[in-house]
Amino acid sequence: MPAPRSRWLTAARTPVGACAGLLLLAVVVLAVLAPVLWGDRASVVDTSALQQGPSGAHVLGTDSLGRDILFRVLVATRLSLLLAVAATLLGVALGLVLGTVPAVLPRRAGQLVVSVVNIAVAFPGLLLALFFAVIFGVGATGAVLAIGLAMAPAFARLTHTLSASVAGQDFVAAARTVGVGRTRLLTRHILPNIAEPLAVNATIGAGSSLLAFAGLSFLGLGVQAPDYDWGRLLGEGLGRINLTPAPALAPCAAVVVAGLAFNLFGEAAAAALGVRTLSPRSAGPRPLTPPARAAAAQQPPGDGQPVLAVEDLRVSFPAPEGWTTPVRGVSFAVHPGEAVGVVGESGSGKSLTAMAVSRLVESPAHVTARRLDFTGTPLLGTGERELRTLLGTSLAMVFQDPMSSLNPVMSVGRQLAEVAVHHQHLSGRAARTRAVDRLRAVHVPAPERRARQYPHEFSGGMRQRAMIGMGLMGDPRLIVADEPTTALDVTVQRQVLRLLDEVRAVRATAVLLISHDITVVARTCDRVLVMYAGRIVEDLPAESLFTAARHPYTRALLAAVPDLGTDRDRPLAVIPGRPPEPDRIPEGCAFAPRCARADDHCRRVDPDPVTCATGHRIACWHPVADGTGPVAETRTGDTV
Questions:
Q1: What's the farthest any 2 CA atoms get from each other in the chain?
Q2: Number of domains present in the structure of the chain
C-alpha cells in the first residue's frame, strides 16, 4: 500500500484532483489574505458614492454607505469559510459519535440512539437549522450550533449504515475472534474502512454549510453587524437587484465557487484516502514477493504444478499489545482436479485461511507468505487489476450463507450475467443466455424462469447451487467452499456435495472444502488437512483418515463423531477443554493442555510438521503409533 504522501500526489495528478487543489487553494489564500490586503478599503464609508452601480472606481458598485462591494465580498471570504468549516466539524463530530455509539453501548441503549437519529433525519435539514437558530439566538455562534446540529443526524445515519455493513464482513468477524474489544474494533477495523464515503460526505457538507449560513444571514438570523458574510451581503444587494444585479450576484457567485471547491476536493480526497492502512513504521509482517518467483509467474503452469501453492501463510491482526496471528505458518498445495478438505474446531483458522488465499482479507490485517501462488501467479506480488481478472474468472468462492452473498434487489440471472459482462466482456443478451445455461448446469429446475427470480424466492439449496453456478460463469480452476452445507438439511447437503464432485470430475476443477464435519470431508475429498490453533497439525489421504490418523487431535475429532456402534447408554465422547484464543496461544504445542499424551517438552517446544508416510505429514512430538488406540480409548470413556 503506498504511503499517504504518495497517494495524495497520485490524486493531485488527476484532472479532478488538480482542479480541486488549485480551486480550494485559491479560496483559502483569499480567505487568509483578503482581510489583510483590503480590510480597510472594504470598511471605508464614502457618502459621495452611495449605492452606485459598477464603474471604473468600484467594479461591483457600492452599498448604502458607499463602501466598495467587491472588497467586501473578498473580505467576507474568511468569515464565511470559518463559520462553514466550524459548523461542518461540529456536525461531523456529533454525527460520528451518534453513528458509532450504538456499536459500543448495550443493545437497548444503542437502539434508543438509533431511533432518535431516525426521527431527527425525518425533518428537513433547513427546518432543523431554523429551529435551532431560534433556540440558540441570533448571531454567528447560534448559527454555527444550529447548522452543526442540523447536519449531525444525516451524518450519523450515514455512519451507522456504513458501520453496520462493514461490521458484517468476514474480516471483522475474524477480528472479533482474536478478542478485539468493541471500541478498538470500531476505531481500527470499521471506521478506517468507511473513511472514503465519510470524507466525501463531510466535504459536501461543508459546501452545504456555506449555503445554510448564507440563508440564515440573509434572513437576519446569522452574522450580525458590524460583521458581514456572503449571506448578509446578498440580503443587502437583493433589494437593488432590479436596478443593478452585481451587488446580489457577486456573493451568490462566491458561494457557488467555494461550494464547488469543497465538492471537488471531496472527490480528490476520496481517491487519495481510500481505505486507510497502518503506516509502514507500525506495520507488522509484510508480504514477501521474491523477484525470481514474480518473473516466473508470467509463464503458464506446467504439468504437475499445483493450482494453489501455499507456504508459511500467516494472517495477522493489530492488537493492543502488538499483533495477533490466528493463522500461523500454514503450508499446503491443491492440484488440478483434487479435492482437499480442511477440518477443525471453530476458531482453528479454517475460514480465515480460505479468505486469505482468496484475497478476501482486507486491511488492517496483514497476509504474508513465503509463497502464495494461484495458477502460477503470486497473489501477494501482483497488482489489483490483474488479480481482479484472474480471481474473477479462475476462482470461485462458495460461502456458508449464500443469502448474504447474493444481492437481494437483483435477480439471480442478472447477478450471474454480471460476471460475464465484466470479466468476459459479453453483451447483455449473451451474458443472460450463459447465466441460464450455468443455472441449468447446476441442476436448477426451470432455469429460464428462475433466472428472473430474486434470491428470497430460492430455497437454501437452490441459492447454494446458484452460487456454484456463478463461479462456473468463468472457467474456475479452483472452488473454495467455506462450509457450503452447514445450514442445509441432509438431503440437500448430499445434492450440493454431489454437484461439487460432478464439477470437479467434468472440468478438472480443484476444490478446497472447509467443514466442521470430518466424515463429510472423508467421503468427499482426496486429502484432509486438520487445523488446530491456526496451524495444520496433520495432512493425510482421506482414504486412510479412519485407519492411519496419528495426531491425538485428529483421533479425538474422529472419536467425537457418533456412529451406529456408539453405546447410547454412555455420554458422547468429547474433547476436554477449549481451543486457545488466537491472542493467547500457549508456548509449545497448542494442543498440549488438552492432550493426555503431552509432556513438559510438548509444553515448551512447538513441533514442526514431519513426513511419517507417503502423503502423510504430522506435527506432534508423541504421535499415535497405530490407528486404534486413541479412538478405542475414547469410545470406552477416556479422554484424549
A1: 111
A2: 3
Number of H helices, E strands in the chain: 25, 13
Query: How far is 222 from 109, CA to CA, in rounded Å?
Result: 35
Q: Are 73 and 250 in contact (CB under 8 A)?
A: yes
Residues 113 and 134 in one domain: yes
Residue 247: give its domain's CATH number: 1.10.3720.10
How far is 442 from 461, CA to CA, in rounded Å? 11
Overall pTM surpassing 0.85 (yes/no): no
Cα torsion through 467, 469, 472, 478, rounded to 10: 40
> Which residue shows C-alpha cell 495426531?
551
Q: What are phi and psi of 486, to 5 degrees?
A: -65, -45
3-state secondary structure 487-544: CCCHHHHHHHHHHHHHHHHHHCCEEEEECCCHHHHHHHCCEEEEEECCEEEEEEEHHH
DSSP string, 538-605: EEEEGGGHHHH--SHHHHHHHHTS--TTS-TTSPPP---S-PPPGGGPPSS-TTGGG-TT--HHHHH-
pLDDT band at 188 (very low <50, low <70, confident <90, very high): low
Same-domain pairing of 162 and 14: yes
Q: Is 428 helix (H, G, I), strand (E, B) or coil?
A: helix
Instruction: Of 161-165, 180-184, 481-485, give the lowest mean pLDDT range.
Output: 180-184
Do 516 and 575 fall into the same domain? no
Domain-located, residue 279: no
Quick one: 372 and 475 in the same domain?
yes
Q: Is residue 411 part of a domain?
A: yes
Domain contains 280: no
Q: What angle do CA 244, 249, 253 make, to 5 degrees?
A: 160
What's the CA angle centered on 520, arms 494 and 518, to 5 degrees?
A: 160
> What DSSP string runs through 262-291?
HHHHHHHHHHHHSS----TTT--S-----H
Same domain, 393 and 463: yes
Q: What is the pLDDT of residues 364-407, one digit of tens each?
A: 788 999 999 998 889 887 877 777 778 777 888 887 766 666 76
Residues 112 and 210 placed together within one structural domain of the fold = yes
CATH of residue 338's domain is 3.40.50.300
Residue ending a domain, choose from 273, 289, 323: 273
Percentage with pLDDT > 70 across the chain = 83
Q: What is the rounded distance in angstroms from the CA atom of residue 344 to the CA atom of residue 330?
A: 14
Residues 507 and 545 in one domain: no
- Per the structure, the complete domain to which residue 498 belongs is given by 306-524
553 closest CA partner among 540, 566, 537: 537
| β 527-532/322-334 pair status | unpaired
Q: Is residue 293 part of a domain?
A: no
